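Q: What residues go here?
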């Protein structure tokens, strides 16, 4: 999910204009970093330890999150590709 969000922010900003292409990367890193910090911190809250477990019943609880992540990743990458293509076609090189 996080890499899909990164791609969505990065590619839509990167192909918006032909100038200042280097600013897209740090801006796209911001939601990625915040998301990673939130997910790393989540397992330390009471009752959320199952997110960091490899026990069988906990893996069954984690599986829907994995499926959701795969779907969000695919959808956000397709959207990023479509928006990046649209923005790139507008840029006068």
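A:
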């Amino acid at each position: 999910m996080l890499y899909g969000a990164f791609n969505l922010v990065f590619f839509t900003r990167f192909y918006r204009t032909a100038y200042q292409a280097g600013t897209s990367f740090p801006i796209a890193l911001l939601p990625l970093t915040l998301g990673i910090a939130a997910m790393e911190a989540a397992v330390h809250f009471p009752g959320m330890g199952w997110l960091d477990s490899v026990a069988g019943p906990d893996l069954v609880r984690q599986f829907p999150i994995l499926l959701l992540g795969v779907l969000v990743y695919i959808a956000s990458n397709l959207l990023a590709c479509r928006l990046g293509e649209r923005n790139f076609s507008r840029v006068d090189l």
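A: Context that may help when evaluating the design: The CA atoms of residues 22 and 60 lie 42 Å apart. The mean pLDDT is 89.
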